[in-house]
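Lecture 7 notes. Example A: sequence first, then its structure tokens.
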Amino acid sequence: MRSVAIGLMVMAVASAKKPDMNKKAHESVQKLLHAQQAELAGGLFTFGTLDNEIEGWKEAAQKGKEENQRIEDMKDSIGEETFDMINEQLAGMNRQGMEKQRVENRDGSTEAVISRVDPFAIDKTTVTIEQFRKFAKDTGYKTEAETFQWSFVHEKCLSDKMVELVDHEEGLGRVKESPHWCGVYGAYWRRPEGPDSSIKGKGHYPAVHTSWNDAVAYCNWAGMRLPTEKEWEYAARGGLEDELYPWGEEPDDGNFSQLLNSWEGKFPKENPAYDGHVCAGPSDAYQPNAYGLYNMVGNVWEWVGGGTPEKRILRGGSYVDTIDGSANHLLRVSTRMENSADSGGHNTGFRCARTIQKTKKKKQKKHKTQRRRTDL
């Protein structure tokens, strides 16, 4: 089942044209897509978060767990309805409500370990709208957002008309726990912000509203696969050890706006967009890392291989996440979360990878060496 917090369910409508799930892109198309990838040698690297090394982090996490338990006990004691009413009153007084804190690592990852990957190739950018359009045209494939006939979009990305439709009594409404996320009828990769939006002039933007299942289908057509989680992080680090970002250290002036697309300002209402984008930006925005890979942190979440149908893995964070962790996920090369395989939204995309066969070293023939005669 798709992970939703909106009460109204939408029935799926069968496509008039049954997609050919086994169809592959023409060999020439596959070769072109493969040639555009970065081929990486693999090897040892740091895999996971460095949050645990921050002084006082474990103590703060324990304090957060205790506070969360106190809030949960209060909610059970007074009832959910009364609890929600109190929070609404606090919000009306411009006071902070009783909300649970995130107590796991702020980037959602596990403690860092030394890991290893074999040689592989990976897309330099997330799959673009233009690339996905060719796939859909060639196969007749319908994404899960198209089948469900709706998807999630952040309210800051919507027109006033679409917000009005969302909030209408016949609209899909908003996620209860995160009301900035709106259920939008007709939102999918070709209409990213709903029926009144367009992809004209945005062929180089990420193909969003794509689920894990959609990503697997595209990569299979392209003669590739999703990267493993370790491959993805190896690629994101760009050959740097124990650094937080794809480019290395924090800028001396603390200004990240020319480096990635993240949320700036008070979430979720204010985003001055010093980085040039309120919502998702082009797949090739900003400078690539040392491996030539773009937007490995921020912009849109990226599906990777592994996990279970209920808990598939996304990496890298998106435009709603923050550098300082003040809202949503903390943006790092280790940023991670999980969602169901059929989930997707305005901030989810993917890139493909493929295995590179190791070149076997030729065994040198051993030649018998003749002893030099000394009796001549």
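Example B, a different protein, same format:
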Amino acid sequence: PPAMPLLADDAALQVRGHELRVNQAMVRTGKPASPGVKAGAALALCGLAWLGGRVLAKGAVATLALVLAIMRVKRVSQWCVSLFLPAAMRSMDKAMRKIKEATLIPIIQGRVLDFGCGDGQYLRYVGKALDQVTEIVSLEPNTNLHRGILAHAEKFNCTSKPYQLSGEFAEDLLLERGPETFDTIIVGNVLCEVPDQRAALSSLYKLLAPGGCLWFIEHVAAEKNTIEYKVQHMLNPLWCTLTDGCNINRSTLKRIEEQPWEVNAWAFLSGGAFLVGSKSASQQSQTQSSRLSELSNRSQEQDQSPSYRPYKGPAANLVVSVDEKGTWKLQP
């Protein structure tokens, strides 16, 4: 359970002059599983275990071991994930779209960072608030997804603003651009994947300008001592390997609360892949500090004119360049 109380359904929250209200009914798959469904899921798992035992007895162990070994290779796992992630993100986006429209679009303003943006689904919402936006940066280390991100940036007219697509991590972006760089940070279903949540959140806190907002939505660990919790921990090693680092058993909200910002959060039940109810947390976090000085004396002598190799984007009339760090920038 979080250290701070969660907001109730339809509770009003004032953020940047907007009153935000959401409720469970806005979640497209927001029906928690009944005891009968849970019992059916348990029987199904038992049946799969029995079937799996028979299959494994016939020599499938070596095949499974080979698949898992191959997926441990980072480049292979990133390529495989890039094949199914866009479809998964579209499905999640549809399920939570009303929540996002009610809580994300109203708070977007200024310099926007889409952290771990996948294939760029959140650019849909940034595009609906472009009159309040001055700059957009999409951060995604899996470069196999970059073409899709650029296509979404063009589709939702985000390229009409200064736009950058980077393959770096938050820590690298902090060193490159310094603290207090962004007014709005979007974190959509990505904290389950970062290797070190505390390090990533610390960097995001430093990147957030005074008065800025961080918005996130995450799937999190179920309540302890429940069937869901035990299933999550049992399946996590296999799931994490097959999905290039996605963890289904993290207490993400607790990690977020460790940073010195004000946190306002709702929790929703959403339909899960295992036929049991799972919690998703959605919230806006605002910085309380005035100025951060840890990196204010960073070097200003970095080369501002790197050599670029030309690249023509997938969308019509969209031309970008890529530097040696994998950073994509629009060309005039």
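Note on Example B: DSSP finds eight helices and twelve strands in the chain. Residues 272-281, 288-319 have pLDDT under 50 and may be disordered.
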